[in-house]
Specification:
Layout (H helix, E strand, L loop, with lengths): L8 H6 L2 H11 L3 H61 L7
Length: 98
């Protein structure tokens, strides 16, 4: 009598190989031991998925921050160039021209 795997294939794509291997070991345990271990393992899976989601959000936020910094640096350089051109234009004028 074989039991169907309790952990879906989509989980194996999201989880580290160590956890997938551990799930396979858990399914081979006797029923009286397996029930206690599966609850703890489910919590580990949920925390792993949550950490992965948080990591992805942080990576996306960092990417957006890098892009925003590039835009700000470009804008700062453009503003400096405009300031310098304006200074050169006003320094070239004599006081009686104003």
């Amino acid at each position: 009598m074989t039991n169907p795997p309790r952990f879906q294939n989509e989980t194996s794509e999201e989880l580290p190989k160590d956890l997938v291997d551990f799930a396979a070991v858990i399914t081979q345990l006797p029923a009286e031991h397996r029930s206690g271990v599966e609850a703890a393992f489910s919590r580990v899976i949920e925390s792993t998925k949550r950490r992965r989601r948080i990591l992805n959000l942080v990576q996306e936020a960092l990417s957006q921050l890098r892009l925003d910094m590039k835009y700000l640096m470009f804008d700062l350089e453009a503003t400096r160039r405009e300031r310098d051109e304006l200074r050169q234009g006003t320094e070239g004028q004599s006081p009686e021209d104003e």
